[in-house]
Amino acid sequence: ASRGSLPAFNGVGTTSDGHRVPLLANVGSGKDAVAAAAAGAEGVGLLRTEFCFLGRDTEPSIEEQVAAYGAVFEAFPGRKVVIRTLDAGADKPLPFLTDATEPNPALGVRGFRTDRSSPGVLTRQLEAIAAAAGSHESDVWVMAPMISTADEAADFAVMCGAAGLATPGVMIEVPAAAIMSRAVLSRVKFASLGTNDLTQYTMAADRQLGTLASLNDPWQPAVLQLIAATVAGGAAAGDVDGTVRSVGVCGEAAADPALAVVLTGLGVNTLSMTPRALSTVGAVLASVTLPQAQELAALALAAETAAEGRTQVRRKLPILE
Ligand code: PEP
Ligand code: MG
Fold it and tell me: What is the active site of this protein (predicted)?
């Protein structure tokens, strides 16, 4: 089959031998969520809440937040919706949270770190998420961006607990958190790999610079090794207390169909992407068995360069030709 003739996504992500990998959507608003549901997304794997409030000079009220999050839940009744708390800073500045004069914003007070500089904003956001979740049927998971340490993960879990939110998780997008994933994940219930930032920080290459695109490539074997380490860390944390940690991917890597197969082979158990990628990723995933995906993952992981891994894997996926 050529790419042009791939069937529309039927709403159930799976390999050809029946290994389920829910395919979720990345969204920034209730409107996006409606479109994602129409495209067949099985749920939301990333609600970028900062997108709901970009351009605002002041913190949104709890009522405004309840309405924004409720609109997303509304589109996915009974489905999983992963809400990310405000990821302000660097490429997504919010005037009420971040300092525009920081010399190096990608390494600055961004994401979860803004809880130190602006205490209270995150607590109120969690309160709003809990209120919106309380009047909808979605299965609501909440995660913090830019977690670097086990202590930060523990602090976030305590804050979620205080708000009555039962499923706290973290984004793994800082190499330190991937390396320490067993300890980090032992503090929370799930992880979602943010491969955009994980690649930027692993390769020390600004994700906003097109001139560095060859470094900013999630096929870089160093990035894949950190993803594999995170899956292993999640399993190890689960072995200690008997609670399985879901480890998903919500960065752009999940929207690359060949890489989606590799991620599945590495043991990632959900893929969240821009809705327009769902049909291609769904079709390519359905063209391989889990053992084949594992074989391709081993090839990509063992490659010495990004190009080598990508070429070798794509060559073994006839559906992409
Ligand atoms: C990521 O870093 O991969 C991610 C999903 O978050 P964002 O692109 O919003 O930083
Ligand atoms: Mg990120």
Answer: 250 (proton donor)
Encode pLDDT of 61-93 as tens digits: 999 999 999 999 999 999 999 999 999 998 888
Active-site positions? 250
CA distance linking residue 241 with residue 229, whole number of Å: 19
Predicted TM-score (pTM) above 0.90: yes
Query: Is the pLDDT reported for residue 256 higher than 60?
Result: yes
> How far is residue 261's CA from residue 106's CA, in Å, rounded to a whole number?
30
Is 216 annotated to bind a ligand? Reply is no
Q: How far is the CA of 5 from the centre of ligand 1 (A)?
A: 30
Radius of gyration from C-alpha coordinates of the chain: 19
Q: Which atom of ligand 1 is nearest to the CA of 196?
A: 3
Main-chain phi, psi angles of 148, to 5 degrees: -110, -25
What is the Å distance from ligand 2's center to 196 Cα? 6
Which ligand neighbours the alpha carbon of 199 most closely? Answer: 1
* CA atoms of 82 and 26, how far apart (whole Å): 9
| Ligand 1 shell residues, CB under 6 Å | 46, 48, 87, 173, 194-197, 250-251
ipTM of the complex: 0.99
CA dist., res. 277 & res. 69, Å (int): 23
